[in-house]
Request: fold
Amino acid sequence: MCGIVGYTGSSPALLVLLQGLERLEYRGYDSAGVALVEKGELYVDKKVGKIRELVRSLWGKDLKATAGIGHTRWATHGEVCELNAHPHTDGSSEFAVVHNGIVENYRELKEELEKLGIAYRSQTDTEAIVHLVALNYEGDLLKAVLKTLEKLTGAYAFAVISAKEPGRIVAVRYGSPLVVGIGKGENFIASDIPALLPFTRDVIPLKDGEVVDLRPDGVFIYDFKGNLLTKDVMHVPWDIISAEKGGFKHFMLKEIFEQPRTLSDTIRGYISRDLSLPFSLKDFRRVLVVACGTSYHAGLVGKYWIEKYAGVPVEVAYASEVRYSDMQVGEEDLVLAISQSGETADTRFSVLALKEKGSTLLSLVNVMGSALDRESDYTLYTHAGPEIGVAATKTFTAQLAVLYALAVNHTEDRQVKMENLLRVPHLVEEYLSNSEAVRELAIRYADRRDFLYIGRYLSYPVALEGALKLKEISYIHAEGYPAGEMKHGPIALIEEKTPTIAIAPKDRVYEKMLSNIEEVLARKGKVIGVGFEGDENLKKLCTNLIEIPPIEEDLTPFLTTIPLQLFAYYIADYLGLDVDQPRNLAKTVTVE
Ligand code: F6R
Reply:
């Protein structure tokens, strides 16, 4: 979590840092700050709140520094306040550090440093880094950082500047993402590629255990022992336009409406060839899907498809639960990690532990060059482009598309199934161009404090995902539940003011869903149905019906998901909430 940016060159660094920070704000927005080497001295400014508060504070200041570092924070250690905001400086204000991740042994380090008479100013784990660098400094920032690394444990990325060496930034990656951007006479670092796109598309994603010494005219990458490494520069295929709002009020809305294209790009990526995997799912005793949040929900849908078409048992587990469990895995198991960012700490570290036990690691990620991409035996990509809204939307449906392609990969009529899948983007487009009704419905229900989302079979994970979207951006309590389980407890929650969203496409459990809807109605509950156009049974039964184009059973999750994304979006927007950056959240969760 948190976003780091750094610049060294000949232009005013501040402008580059602020632009970069704006693009990283999705990673955390509790506070923001910059440190520059201005006229031989460190200049630090930091403010609680979003980047705009920092911009306000810096407004009109004529800062000419051509090197600096910046940070946007998602608090882990220490409350949200200016003292805990980054950058942090040493006692003599000669060194500044920005940090993402966690220094796990910070308590011991603090004790050691305090014994040496070093006074702490913040409650953060980060402050240890800057004091150690200052303590280890003997005229060479790189050497001071390398020596500091010997003392740190945890997972982190950080960047340091020093007033003693203007124009030099030393940055480290160990468990949290960091990318180097290569320019002409200027170079950059950032936590994520989109922050670099206004300046360069030539990047080097650092690996864990690498340190970069960044200067205006050179980039030198070392391992933690100080050995110089040779690295390839990667050219990023996205352009900046694809990371802009394109006339939409929020990134989330833009990303929802992008789905016909992102689905078609993803499906086309796999349609004319098989998945280029040197194995079949059938070669394994079991597929173990490991993921968090929305990616976990995609995994639940994938389970049904893989079990149906590949005939292999599939287990789906929350990464945070796997990590400290005694899960039995071995060579006979395929671990499938699903992660939009490819950087989620829970997912990465749990699947790496499973890989250690001998299983094969296949990842499904949206970000090429991300940690998971590099750490896996094999990777499949969703071609959804950068997703900026904190709530995952287009990457969820793109994950579904790849999971479907994976499930049918070795079926005899694979090609027919994939051609059929290509109908999905058109149907999603058809629905989106006619989706005004869901906005009106959302406004009508925006005053409710609790919602239930129910579904069965493929619609059960969709119910979970719909509920997650609503709670994370509108702060309304929502629970996703398997419809058949309602009678075993949650049905007690039903009352007039708690609407139930029932996902009921015409599939194998349709009749069962109708009965579950009746059960809710019998308790005076209001039901918003999501079903096929022209479904008169549902229309009669439900208080309101969201109609989607009819589609075969297998592919229903693609269509049922979209109105639920819109429903959550329109409620949050109507309530005037910060849709793209909901409170307490961050897009990429690189802490445990
Ligand atoms: C919800 C959401 C999160 C992520 C989760 C995993 O809208 O975005 O629940 O799905 O944090 O992130 P990735 O997929 O990057 O591993």
User: Anything to note?
Assistant: The chain has 19 helices and 25 strands. The longest strand covers residues 95-103.
